[in-house]
Amino acid sequence: xYSDAERFLLDFHQRQPGVTAxxxxxxxxxxxxxxxxxxxxxxxxxxxxxxxxxVLDVGxxxxxxxxxxxxxxxxxxxxxxxFSLAELRAAAPPVRxxxxxxxxxxxxxxxxxVDAALSHMALMLMxxxxxxxxxxxxxxxxxxxxxxxxxxxRPPSPAFDTYLTILRRHLAALPVPAPRxxxxxxxxxxxxxxxxxxxxxxxxxxxxxxxxxLTPEAAWAGYERxxxxxxxxxxxxxAFRQEYLSAVRTHVEADGLLAIPQQLxxxxxxxx
Length: 272
What we know:
The protein has 272 residues and is of the alpha/beta class. The chain has 10 helices and 9 strands. It has helices spanning 4-15, 19-24, 39-44, 64-72, 85-89, 129-139, 158-172, 189-196, 216-223, 234-247; strands spanning 29-31, 34-36, 54-58, 77-82, 98-101, 114-120, 140-151, 200-214, 258-271.
């Protein structure tokens, strides 16, 4: 039985399969002093070079990360799990992996059957974070690698703050409150460390930073790929758009663009 939040996510990805890869797949990032092609590349480089590994992508979506892994680690066996059939069906043919529709709280894999578990912008959307961590630990071999990109604290951004202020007002006017996505544990570093500690050692949590410079219209197009705005009916979203584009003009810089910084987190650890 799916929760209200899970039903919302299934519907969203039914209508917009591949949305996460579209949003992050071509966005360069800075990580540990390196400039990388995207936040997906942070996960690809978390695996040891060479060797034939069994690698699990938890919340694999349309297989974007699996495709990158196939190129970088051609000898490895790749496995993808996502609870959205629409996302799995959108996977490109070059993705060479076994994929399954399942929830991360009950992975369809044997105990100690994978060498590494990766996840890109998915774990923090899942209910029952303890069960998610427990099941990922269950399928990892001892000393197996966990590496995940999750949401992080937003840097100061007048453009995004304008969006949030208007969004919160619209969400507060909904007749039924929007369901909360995930239980919040993956956003809090101290809670996240406490979640991982029973199963993992060598835990590191590092920032991934990026900044886009966009026109107000392009910024809005990016917000339309985010979840919260889709709690609103189409008419309300249209009104929101007009209000945002009018309000954000005061933050446009001399070149006609908005500075929109973002910060994610990379979580890495090894199975005890």
